[in-house]
Design goal:
The protein is built from nine helices and no strands. It is mainly α. The protein has two domains: about 80 residues, no CATH class; about 120 residues, Serine Threonine Protein Phosphatase 5, Tetratricopeptide repeat, CATH 1.25.40.10.
Amino acid sequence: MSDGAKIWIGCLFPGLGRAWWYGSPGGLAASLVFVAILNVAIVATFGWTEWIGTSTRTCLWVILSLFWCGGAVLGYRLGRAEDHTGPVDETDEFARARCEYLQGNWYDTEEILKRLLRRDGRDVETRLMLATLYRRTQRPDQSRQSLDQLDRYAAAQRWQHEIRRERELIERDDVSHTENNKSDSSDAEQIVTENTTTVSDRRHQRSLRAA
């Protein structure tokens, strides 16, 4: 698709540009809100005219116009920005994320991976690496969510071994964490028992001396 066509699409339909080009949930939400307001305005104007007052219908169309104008301006800016900056080499971006990951720079790695996913939400390698990052940073629930998303993609079939391995590592970490908690709890109980016994012995000794 030409850059001019992208700019026109971004201007004509609020949020569609961000949802289409970058896989942005915010862009998709904006598109759905725009469609919902448009449907309500049409029904209120041409359908349920006896139920909805004139002032309400006017407000709906004003809101719709403002929403469309804001979306058109943002879509135009996004299209022009992409036109001026040119295509981004995602291979270099992914290589940079991997380099940051190997250096233990978790925050920078996560930022790069999320940026790549905003451009292509179905990038299997990027999402798998993000799941690994979540596991390494003690966020197993988010890691599982990423893996669950991968299971819905046909392109993830050739990565099933890595996905299963990642799930196994999450389960292993969970078991290790549970055992550590039990060990800490047992140690704490032992310390309390020892302290209680010491206090009882001292009190017994004092009572014998007093007698």
